[in-house]
């Protein structure tokens, strides 16, 4: 990731409330010091499924461990495997939206992207009676126009802060090596893929760690948190101080003391599949 992209990511992560952009959960720290014996809560997230072979295996592992997770499903794959969508919901996991076709972000207009999200949301509602309020864009890539459209649909953009890149691992040794170096912190959102054979190795080993508690992403979002009326109305407007870092990138000043994010600004917020 280029330095500019890293700057964009850090700026937006810091500036936006979690109801709009979630990149990690609460860190359980007080004045910079970890609270002793506080349970370490992390969120496992699975993208690109459901997959007829790998998703059931993961669900079995999670059930055996009493662990919950969040599945960002692709609408057209969910339509092919409706029983898996119902099983995910019935077993206490959360369903998230990963668009209808997982189309390449750079080739997808904001209008098409938003329609894919809406179509997938309707399917999840029909299959699992679940009003899906979390969206993870393919590759984590968004433009401001797409982000504003998601917020108008009252969607939280859900990204991640831990990425083992399971999709590129050629054998289980690579996953074991990553796991050996991973030091979980409360609030971690781990990006995994339930259409990939190596992912089960990660889950198998992580759920054996009894110091960890596995939560869904909505467990970290207060139920009263809602996308603000101003955003639903069409413009991101937050107090100037909250967007102060954006001055480094662009002149976003308005005359009334607030700042708006221009809809034409390109924002690549992440660097993954
Ligand atoms: Zn994906």
Summary tags:
single chain; 273 residues; alpha/beta; TIM Barrel; 3-stranded parallel beta sheet; globular; binds zinc ion
CATH topology: TIM Barrel
- By CATH's scheme, which homologous superfamily applies? Glycoside hydrolase/deacetylase
- Number of DSSP helices? 9
- Beta-strand residue percentage: 15-25%
Shape: globular
Oligomer: single chain
The ligands found in this model are:
zinc ion
Give the uncertain stretches in residue-range form.
237-273
Give the mean pLDDT: 82
What is the level 1 CATH name? Alpha Beta
Helix content: 25-40%
Amino-to-carboxy terminus distance? 13 Å
CATH architecture: Alpha-Beta Barrel
**Sheet bearing the most strands, described?**
5 strands, parallel
Structural class, by secondary structure, is alpha/beta
Task: Give a concise summary.
This protein has nine helices and 14 strands. The protein has 273 residues and is an alpha/beta fold.
Tell me what you see in this structure:
Strands 4, 5, 6, 10 and 11 form a five-stranded parallel sheet that branches. This protein has a three-stranded parallel sheet with strand order 1-9-7. A two-stranded antiparallel sheet has the order 2-3. The chain has a single domain (3-27, 38-268), classed as Glycoside hydrolase/deacetylase (TIM Barrel). A hairpin with a 2-residue loop joins strand 2 (29-30) and strand 3. It contains nine helices and 14 strands. It has 273 residues and is α/β, with parallel strands linked by helices. The relative contact order is 0.21. Residues 47-48, 98, 102, 138, 273 line the site of zinc ion. The site of zinc ion has 6 residues, from loops.
